Inverse folding.
């Protein structure tokens, strides 16, 4: 299974702080029920047209595969990938990401892909279309819980 989530994020602090980003990687892995394989890797880099090295990329190798994040604080944008040989509760993970980064209307793509751990069969990438259709409904619930609707209306 492969979760891809991109979007505008208002929590710039986590995007420029290596300690916070490492903590976020650890919490996300734990929430997904996965097993870290070594320490997370965080690297700063300058965004295009800047000499500031505060934009961060993070990667946590997993026994099941990997979690990566690319942060563009100047643009208030994040790109996140969680890939696993195992199924995981992607709705819960998206909620965690939306809340952590205070995202507004992220793009979410969920793919079935990888290797079937029971049969060993290769699973070519394909959209989980039936579940993806639920995104607008549950995203509204996460926004409501987090108070985003009131903030936009006020």
């Amino acid at each position: 299974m492969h979760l891809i989530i991109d979007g505008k994020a208002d929590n710039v602090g986590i995007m420029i702080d290596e300690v916070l980003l490492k903590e976020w990687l650890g919490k996300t892995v734990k929430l997904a029920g996965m097993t870290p394989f070594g320490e997370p890797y965080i690297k700063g880099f300058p965004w295009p047209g800047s000499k500031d090295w505060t934009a961060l990329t993070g990667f946590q190798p997993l026994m099941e595969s990997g979690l990566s994040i690319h942060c563009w604080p100047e643009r208030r944008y994040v790109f996140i990938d969680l890939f696993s040989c195992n199924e995981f509760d992607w709705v819960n993970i998206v909620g965690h990401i939306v809340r952590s980064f205070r995202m507004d209307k992220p793009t979410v793509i969920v793919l079935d892909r990888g290797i079937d751990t029971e049969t060993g069969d290769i699973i070519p990438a394909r959209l989980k279309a039936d579940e993806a259709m639920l995104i607008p409904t549950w995203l509204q619930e996460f926004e409501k819980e987090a108070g985003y609707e009131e903030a936009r209306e006020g």
